[in-house]
């Protein structure tokens, strides 16, 4: 899961992990930026470099979490592949590990993504994957392609040798159909632009793009005819909206038609018990600020529709998450997860704000199609270096960005 | 019931010729870049010779300031009203190029070439966490040294955490001073001193291990890189320290930018505390995207209740049966603001009420009024929420001057929009509805 800063990608990643964990599945939610965003979200203490259960999902599922630290991942790696337990620690003391992970960001990314891929491939004693899915709260859109494309990054540093081999094997997982890179955005110009750029980059690098997740979607509270009426510069709201309100005594042209409309609205407000409708009456004085607010709302809706159209043009599955007004708490997180599940099952998104918006219908939207609980049987476990995984192919690895 | 904090007065800050640097910091997505650009426009049009250093502006915002390419040099912004004698330049930071310039300027050509071509340098200069922050500081130091502007406005990078900006110089410094780097360079440096034997032993053990892990050619690249960077290390540190002191100087003003959201204000609070701890001069907090209402006297609850009443009425009236008309209560019936014909009646009926004569492009007035009321209720809820979030910050940091900048419905991408933001920053905007 990637996205521009501030779009809520950690929230989206956590919601996806919860959604994928439903019905008894086991999901790993990992973060790599040493931000402890997962711990904050789940309201637990800081996560160590160790997988631990942080949440239960409906139907007996579990979400485990891991904060991947590059230095520790390197020690892990040294230990696993070279049995360098003590020497590794000595290197760390000398600052060699810090040096290696700092001086070569590519190396760092190999380690971080390598740890994720290790979790993806890990099997229990019976040969079953330990995790049904792995969701990665990844670096932001601006850095995602670099981060995942460790192959290119490392090619500049090491053309042969163990690090090169490690990078190759990571890339095999990341470019396989087991992986889907989802992008989180808001219906605002900058995040959408960044999403478009990110998708283009990922595609150019041959990395599998998943869905676009539109986060913090706000409700549209006016019907289309009403929106059309208040958005136009000559609409009844014009006098109020233009100057920021206050000047209710609009002069000249607007008076005839809009004046009537305003008077009618004032009357309606008055009938609803909000005061007098006559000029200067309590209800009448509400009309201008209310129209000004509606005008702003309509302008925003128009902008949002433009952004939706841009997103639709990408031809990717689109999922939407509502704005949680009071901030994201655990309850809200479960609601978002439920919403993601429903959308994946339906394959489409109820699209409150944009009757014109297109929503791609892609049952594979989550990479391995696992969110709907439909096991894939594509045997995509190749490329992990272990051949086909010998199970029935239910391994669904969400290396979500 | 809301808490008050001192007002952050932007114009006096911009007009004070002793203000030489303004740093806009805060977490990502709160409008830092826009704020920096708007301050630049306002300062220039009030007579300052200003330059804005942006890190990663949105494309259209960049275009609005004439920044079509990333060429790492300040360009004059067209369209600024220079009648007060001011001007505005703007530049986008090119991190890699800035790093390259540092290398070229601080080492002899042969060494510079060796560094620039080294694969580790290429990796480091493009992606090392903190490089962007460090290079922003470096560029700030350069602009200040050029002395061509009397006000430099800096937008800080969209870091993981707002604090990275302050930590970057130290972090790079301590990294470059690291034991391991010393060790890698040890054979060359330590010479005949005591302990060389031990170091060499440690070195050979280590290089053995390292080359096993990384491969020998990779290790050789690292060593070349470190040796080549060696001469520059001192310079890095000196300049990082100088920039740090520059930030503490009285001519510098930090503006923490935030939005009235929990996370953004939490970051802002961290930043305020951190600036105090580092003796960095905080001018105040810019709270962006604040909502207000011109009809604040009408509460969300009353608006919703009224909207429901109107909708019930419209429902009753919109149905195919006329009988429903009277159910709206005698008030409505008496006022005859609703036409009693069946809802689907065509608009052409000559005796239609005013609502209908305008064609069916319009919703009945009660529906429209109900929609307006629902919008208002939502707005009031947003206002209340923002107020609570803001108050939480103010109760912890009551001394921090603050200015609210009301939300614009769309993104800003022209000078006009930046001027509007500037007005709002200065607290001079008309009360937005």
UniProtKB/TrEMBL annotation, chain B:
<dbReference type="Pfam" id="PF02374">
    <property type="entry name" value="ArsA_ATPase"/>
</dbReference>
<dbReference type="InterPro" id="IPR016300">
    <property type="entry name" value="ATPase_ArsA/GET3"/>
</dbReference>
<dbReference type="InterPro" id="IPR027417">
    <property type="entry name" value="P-loop_NTPase"/>
</dbReference>
<protein>
    <submittedName>
        <fullName>ArsA family ATPase</fullName>
    </submittedName>
</protein>
<feature type="region of interest" description="Disordered">
    <location>
        <begin position="337"/>
        <end position="364"/>
    </location>
</feature>
<feature type="compositionally biased region" description="Basic and acidic residues">
    <location>
        <begin position="353"/>
        <end position="364"/>
    </location>
</feature>
<feature type="domain" description="ArsA/GET3 Anion-transporting ATPase-like">
    <location>
        <begin position="19"/>
        <end position="291"/>
    </location>
</feature>
<dbReference type="InterPro" id="IPR025723">
    <property type="entry name" value="ArsA/GET3_ATPase-like"/>
</dbReference>
């Amino acid at each position: 899961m990637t996205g521009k800063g501030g779009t809520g990608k950690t929230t989206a990643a956590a919601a996806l992990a919860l959604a994928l964990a439903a019905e008894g599945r086991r999901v790993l939610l990992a973060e790599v930026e040493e931000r402890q965003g997962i711990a904050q979200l789940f309201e637990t203490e800081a996560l160590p470099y160790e997988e631990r259960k942080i949440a239960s999902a409906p139907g007996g599922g579990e979400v485990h979490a891991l904060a991947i630290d590059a230095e520790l991942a390197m020690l892990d790696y040294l230990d696993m592949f070279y049995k360098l337990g003590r020497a590794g620690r000595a290197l760390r003391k000398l600052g060699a590990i810090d040096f290696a992970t700092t001086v070569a960001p590519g190396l760092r990314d190999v380690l971080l993504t390598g740890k994720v891929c290790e979790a993806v491939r890990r099997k229990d004693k019976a040969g079953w994957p330990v995790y049904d899915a792995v969701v990665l709260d990844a670096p932001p859109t601006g850095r995602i392609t670099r981060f995942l494309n460790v192959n290119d990054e490392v090619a500049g540093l090491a053309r042969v040798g163990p690090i090169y081999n490690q990078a190759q094997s990571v890339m095999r997982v990341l470019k396989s159909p087991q992986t889907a890179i989802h992008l989180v955005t808001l219906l605002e110009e900058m995040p959408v632009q960044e999403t478009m750029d990110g998708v283009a980059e990922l595609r150019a690098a041959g990395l599998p793009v998943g869905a676009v997740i539109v986060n913090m979607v706000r409700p549209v509270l006016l019907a289309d005819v009403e929106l059309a009426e208040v958005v136009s510069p000559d609409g009844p709201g014009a006098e109020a909206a233009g100057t920021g309100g206050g000047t209710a005594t609009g002069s000249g042209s607007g008076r005839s038609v809009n004046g009537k409309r305003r008077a009618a609205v004032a009357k309606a407000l008055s009938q609803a018990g909000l005061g007098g409708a006559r000029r200067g009456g309590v209800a009448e004085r509400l009309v201008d600020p209310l129209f000004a607010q509606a005008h702003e709302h309509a302008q925003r809706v128009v902008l949002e529709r433009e952004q939706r159209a841009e997103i639709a043009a990408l031809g990717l599955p689109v999922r939407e998450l509502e704005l949680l007004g009071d901030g994201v708490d655990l309850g809200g997180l479960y609601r978002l997860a439920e919403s993601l599940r429903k959308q994946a099952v339906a394959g489409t998104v109820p699209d409150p704000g944009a009757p014109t918006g297109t929503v791609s219908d892609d049952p594979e939207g989550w990479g391995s199609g696992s969110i709907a609980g439909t096991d894939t049987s594509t045997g995509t476990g190749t490329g992990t270096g272990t051949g086909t995984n010998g199970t029935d192919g239910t391994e669904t690895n969400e290396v979500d960005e | 019931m809301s808490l008050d904090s001192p007002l952050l007065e932007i114009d006096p800050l911009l007009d004070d010729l002793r203000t030489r640097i303004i740093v806009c910091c805060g977490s990502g997505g709160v409008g830092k870049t826009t704020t920096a650009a708007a301050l630049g426009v306002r300062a220039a049009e009030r007579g300052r010779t200003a330059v804005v250093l942006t890190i990663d502006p949105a494309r259209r915002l960049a275009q609005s300031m004439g920044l079509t390419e990333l060429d790492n040099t300040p360009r004059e912004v067209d369209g600024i009203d220079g009648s007060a004698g001011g001007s505005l330049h703007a530049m986008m930071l090119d991190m890699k190029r800035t790093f390259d310039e540092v290398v070229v300027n601080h080492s002899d050509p042969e060494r510079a070439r060796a560094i620039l071509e080294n694969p580790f340098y290429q990796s480091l200069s493009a992606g090392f966490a903190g490089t962007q922050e460090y290079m922003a500081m470096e560029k700030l130091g350069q602009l200040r040294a050029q002395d061509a502007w009397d006000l430099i406005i800096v937008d800080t990078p969209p870091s993981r955490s707002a604090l990275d900006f302050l930590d970057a110089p130290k972090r790079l410094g301590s990294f470059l001073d690291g034991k391991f780097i010393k060790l890698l360079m040890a054979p060359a440096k330590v010479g005949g001193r005591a302990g060389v034997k031990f170091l060499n032993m440690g070195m050979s053990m280590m290089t053995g291990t390292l080359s096993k892990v990384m491969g020998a050619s990779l290790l050789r690249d690292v060593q070349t890189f470190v040796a080549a960077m060696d001469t520059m290390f001192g310079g890095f540190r000196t300049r990082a320290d100088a920039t740090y002191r520059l930030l503490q100087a009285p001519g510098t003003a930090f503006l923490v930018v935030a939005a009235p959201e929990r996370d953004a204000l939490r970051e802002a609070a961290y930043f305020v505390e951190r600036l105090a701890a580092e003796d960095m001069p905080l001018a105040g907090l810019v709270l962006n995207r604040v909502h207000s209402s011109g009809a604040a006297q009408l509460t969300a609850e009353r608006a919703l209740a009224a909207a429901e009443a109107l909708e019930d009425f419209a429902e009753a009236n919109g149905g195919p049966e006329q009988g429903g008309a009277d159910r709206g209560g005698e008030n409505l019936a008496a006022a005859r603001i609703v036409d009693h014909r069946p809802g689907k009646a065509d608009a052409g009926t000559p005796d239609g009420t005013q609502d209908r004569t305008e064609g069916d492009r319009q919703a009945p007035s009660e529906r429209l009024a109900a929609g307006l009321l629902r919008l208002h209720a939502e707005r009031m809820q947003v206002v209340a929420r923002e107020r609570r979030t803001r108050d939480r910050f103010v109760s912890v940091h009551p001394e921090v001057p603050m200015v609210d900048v009301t939300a614009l419905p769309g993104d800003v991408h022209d000078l006009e929009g930046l001027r509007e933001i500037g007005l709002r920053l200065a607290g001079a905007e008309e009360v937005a509805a």
